[in-house]
Amino acid sequence: MIISKITGREYNEANCVYVTNMLQCQRYLAHLGPEYLLDILYTGTYRKDSLVFVFEKCPETRKAKELWDKHELN
Fold this sequence. Notes:
Elements: E1 2-3, E2 10-11, E3 16-19, H1 22-32, E4 37-41, E5 52-56, H2 59-69
Antiparallel strand pairs: 1-2, 3-5, 4-5
Helix pairs in contact: 1-2
């Protein structure tokens, strides 16, 4: 288990969705709300030289991804 230094939330990295596209992150937050945001990685642990937003893997984030892929997540 990991405890986020940003959100203070505890999570299992196997049950997460990692997003590096800033526009996609903004749309996920606007669509889902901050309660689905688990962490923000900034140390290069997932991808070098970028912020990585870690969201809960669940039906709601799956739906947000489907809408994003269809260019319908506004």
